[in-house]
Amino acid sequence: MKVAAFRSIHTRIMTATTLLIVAIVGSVVWLWAKNERQLYREQKRREVQQLAIALSNTWTNELEDQNWGQIRLGFNLLLKRNPDFVYILISDVRLSNQIVAASESELQEQYVPDIVPVWVTDSALAVYDDTRVVETFLLRDITFNRKVRARQGETAIEVAAAIRNSSGQKIGTLRIGMSLRQVNQAVAIAVEKALFVGVFALSLGLFGSYLLATELSSPVRRLQVSAAKIAAGDLHHRAEIYRKDEIGALAIAFNDMSAALQGLFSRLQKTIESFHRFVPEKFLLVIAPDGIENIQVGFASTRTITILFADIRGYTAMSEQMTPLETFSFLNDYLACMGQVIDKSGGFIDKYIGDAIMALFDDEATDNALYAALAMRQRLKLLNEERSHQGLPTIDIGIGIHRGEVVMGTVGFSSRIESTVVGDAVNVAARVESLTKNYDSTILVTKPIVEALRHPDTFPLRLVDKFVRVKGKEELVAIYELDAV
Length: 485
What we know:
Distance between the termini: 96 Å
Structural class: alpha+beta
Oligomer: single chain
Number of strands: 15
Largest sheet: 8 strands, mixed
CATH superfamily of the largest domain: Nucleotide cyclase, GGDEF domain
CATH topology of the largest domain: Alpha-Beta Plaits
Radius of gyration: 32 Å
Strand content: 15-25%
Number of domains: 3
Shape: flat
Helix content: 40-55%
Order of helices and strands: HHHHEEHEEEEEHHHHEHHEEHEEHEHEE
């Protein structure tokens, strides 16, 4: 009797429905709790980050004038008003990053405070252009006005912001530590609410499935088929179950979950596509052969490659006559033109160095790099015609091309990775570009470039100098001019 009851369609539907509801409710509760946790933490991070930026600007004059007493008074006032602040301190770059003002007087005149791990201090002192936010833990109890402010082992958010003088030079670092107690409490409350909602939804679903188990076997089977399709990767699939009961609601929730997953994967795909704009796909094939998700710091690959450097002549003087917005717009127009030409020629841009472009050509022959250089000159001519019609000054560029062995890989650490190309060949290419001014040329290439041409007769090349000592190198290099007329 018990075996027959267990095998009955009613019991089996009840079991399957129960498991399905548990899975759905569990997923919703987990996602809810996770999203709430991220929301609270991100909100707290933004608050502290904005405050750090404001305070770094506020205390610039006091730090520059070494009016540390005024800064300390500000610290005391902030900690009295905001119980979430654990510590505040300022390091003076001019004093080798000595702490000149701190919410705890014993931290003053130290260099590495004993309240957080050393790596947190190193990360904070490395801030130059922006703020840096890290989550850490406290190494000891922290007191303020003889009261314990935070306990050892407690988690906290530290925001570090650079303090600059009127000349834009960094003179100090502001560090603010904020407790996560309120965040953790808010997350705990959110989890309790999520669990309550989940338990309620689960109870309602079980009650409805008990009453309607006999007539629910068919839609449950269809729902199981839909789940299998989504699990197989068909995120466009939707369960076609139209009922005005709990199973209908479950189908709607299931479809909502499918739509949410589809949206998440769509955003992930867009993120990957955006990532390719920062790191070219050809570069990724070298530094991440196992996929972006498996990229590692320190991965390196040695290759013989062609490097092209292009630089705007007189850019500094030109930019001084433009507003920052005009400079930004001009650079975007120029880099877009040059980037399109390089892409069409089979190269890819490794990085922008101000107005300079560093492009790579991963071909056995060097013809494409020379085609790119000639096309860049032609595109520059059209750009200058457009600028002349707009009453803007024309520009000129110098291009240097060299070929040699480089190391392509990743540098940085787990939280910040950057792709890079290093090697003597990169330095030579940059220095050859700088020689275009000395030889009154627009395009200069080295002997390795000429030797690697598949169709050398196609290009108007002229030997400029057989023995050129490139700055910083002992080896002599033969330089050729590529006629861009």
